[in-house]
Automatic annotation (TrEMBL), chain A:
<dbReference type="Pfam" id="PF14307">
    <property type="entry name" value="Glyco_tran_WbsX"/>
</dbReference>
<dbReference type="InterPro" id="IPR032719">
    <property type="entry name" value="WbsX"/>
</dbReference>
<protein>
    <submittedName>
        <fullName>Uncharacterized protein</fullName>
    </submittedName>
</protein>
Amino acid sequence: MSEITWNFDDLTEGPAWRGAIDGFNDEWIYGWAVSTSDPERPVELEISLFGEPVLSTVTTIFREDIARLMNRPVRAGFSVPLRDMSQAAAQKVLEHLRNAGSGEARIADILRIEIRGTGLSLPCSANLAGIDRGLLRPAVARRADGVSSREEERLRQRDRLLESTLDHAAARAPVDVLAFYRSQFYPDALHDGWYGRDVTDWADVAAARPLFDGHAQPRLPGNGGFYDLRLDAVQQSQIALAKDHGLSGFCYDYHWSAGQARMVLPIDRHVAQDYDFGFCLCWVNDGPSRPPSGDGGAPVTPEQHSYAGDNDFILSCLKYFRSPRYIRIENAPLLLIRGISSLKSPAETIRRWRESIRAEGIEELHVCIVETEPGMNPLEYGADSSCQYPPVGLAGEPVDEDICGLVPGWQGEIRSYADAVQGEISRPVAGHLRFRTAMPGWDDTPRLGLRGQVFTDARSELFGLWMRHLVAEAQEHLPEGRRFVFVRSWNDWASGSCLEPDRQGGTQALTAMRDALTPEALALAPLRPPPAGQPDPLAETRRAVESLVAANRALGALVARRGRGLWGGDASVFLPVAGPLMHVERQSDRQAGVDMVNGHPVKAGVDLPVASWRGLAMRGWFLIGGRAADTAMIALRDTETPDRRYIAAIRDHEDRPDVVAALALDSGLRNFGFTLNASLEAVTAGRYELEFLVPDPYRPKHALAVCPNIVLLVG
Amino acid sequence: MMASGSLVSVVLPTYCHAGYIADCLQSIHDQTHAELELVLIDDCSTDGTWECAQELLSGPLAQRFRNTVLLRNERNLGAHATINRAIAAARGGHISLINSDDRYHPERIATLMAALADTGSEIGFSLVDVFAEAGQAARIDEFFRLFALRQIHAVERDPTVGFALMRENVAISTGNLLFSRGIYEQAGPFQPLKYCHDWDFLLQALFFSEPVVVHEPHYFYRLHEANSFSGLGHVTPVELETATRRFLRRGLRGRPSPNPLFPCEANWPGYFEHVLRECGYDGHMRRERDGAVAGYPFAPEQLNPCG
């Protein structure tokens, strides 16, 4: 019978459940289980110890890791206290424990968790080794003797208190990052009529072409693909991803004109589903400032604003303002406005709005104008604050003349992202309340073609630097409760400014943003050095904190790489090796075998999926020219670009008497087996063939290769 | 701007490499970095290396250099003293060393200078391309097999280049070093250590500046009879102890290191201790700590014979 695994790579394979036992100590048994056919349904579990049925439970706990892997909010976790065991069951278990004596027991030998009615049991997690019987005994004995009810009550109270701490542990980050969110990823008849087109942004994204040498177009979406916002699951996973990377909310584009709201499906859904994530509105009131690409519809005349019409607008916002998820500043809903100057007397309009919503029970309103032109001051418009809107007002000269291979007819502008970041970092603090905004990149040629604007070399490290600066500035200069930083934007794909993962860079931009929000980055923020030439009283403190951060990161990396702690054997890393550095000569002999890859047996001829975050744990053996190799490496050879390899060193060798016996090899062969535990962090997604390499003893740059005929799909 | 315009002194100590010196000089001549000075110093070669070099540099080869200095030791002084003497005679703001049996990649100095300018570092080295004599079919010492590849893994294993250097001399040889005069004045001179003077110098320089590694095989290291078995196996434990303890002592002096990434307890609380034990330097560290506490009652500079 095939067994339950924790493999999510192929949900159709094996039994219709996934799960694992994650922990077993003297108080708790915990883990997770989920049905692949009906993931929302709780799974019933039967727990036995030493073959004695002792407890049963149901999966009810939300496990974020599993939910992410399943891409739905499944409640896959379970956790059972040992003290829920009946006295009779505890007495039986105690008997077994007495017979077994003290010492360490393999958990897999004594604990079995079965999915009710199937006879299938959960495997133990890889890092779950053993449990001290000596530790277990008093816990079970207490139960077997019958614990006093007072003691019982105390334990329950402790668990309740611990649990309540868990629920409220997510303290608010001292700086909130909000991302502009674009809705044009589903067809909306009303909107299409307005803009004279019947396509989503994806059409522009997919149709983009490179317009100069090194122009990275088309820039295609990553794992999420060309999504359609009509699907609930899309927005759900967007929010999960955003929260995961430290965002506090989306600032939805709110299209409202001539008495009608358009493209509001995601906003309405956010309110209806009450997603646990902040949001606010940005009124897109500047109309189609430029005609859309391709054949535009009828020319649109700018809307005539009237007090009455604009009053209808603010009333249309009320249902959003009333959502508990709506982002507020001191109880005033935060409303962004793009195109403030087209209002009929903005100051008067805003004054009337405040009155109007007060009558509806909303006492305050915080109006933030979007700086669609450089140097806009909110006070001139009767607004409360302003918010940057890059690329508007970014520093840096066009660099078009440095660009090679520009297509004829180019009328756009090419600028340097690094210059822009440089300019933003040295921008003085504004005299009014101003929220800063960073953008992970910009290239609107998908939308505007030859009239587009491109910021070149928008690397995620630069974006990270920009974010760190803005976060630091918000901490230092903005009052508490108003520490917001914006990102333009979450998903403006056709402008080349989005946080969402793309095919090339993956989650780099998101990760860079998250790193700017780590406790370490926040701790360092107020310790920024003073401008050059001024005394720096905090120099030593900063140096010490930086050292701690760097050391802790290095230790963290070690622990992560080595799985169980610092001294659990030496791990390797797969690193890219350029073709010219070595010549690989394939050997015709195939004396090689791989027993296990990440805990799974290996089938030849089948591509084996490997998640890159998990790394590669492998056990196997090989012989070169019938002999064992002292120095050996493992290569992942790109099947598309055979010259490209990632190589990791093998550090652990072992004898393989089983192979010697099975293949009737020379019994003197020693040390030709290996175990490898290597990080795949540097490996880009792709299809790779496995090679075992040993250095050629006669030619310094040659390696001899044996191929076990195994292909890995790294992703 | 600064990188391409500044004068680099190529310091070439020669000793009994008559057969290779022409190759070596040609590769210096072919550098794309314009401003070069050549300082050749012969340590009493007995095989005509000196005559050969003089002959070569009396021709058009010498015209490529802004300045050429030819020196000869009156008696054999050894590698460290020879290099120190040559650097004293050099005028460039940066020093680029080379062994007289090895070769440079044409872009070597330009790339390293650009890397120094980019990072603000004062010392750098590149990957090493080990090459064998044409037609040679002898077994190569394990130490030299797939050397560049192993360099990459050694450098990437740790969070900084400094930690990789703490474990071993990933630069392999003096010839692979390019550094500023400023850092030589702070961290130098090269100490009288037969095998370890280059590693010792790197570890000392590390205190002042985080080295930069150019991930291109820009140094061609020649394998031949005389050096092919010169892996680290021949290094005496005393030399290793000297270099290691001089390095540990730097970190214990209590002065913050100008290079904030220098491997020491103050810069890497916890992590340094871990690598220290992995390297097996705990014994050396204990002795250095005792010394630091006691104010080095036993001849404080005994580990620094020159200074």
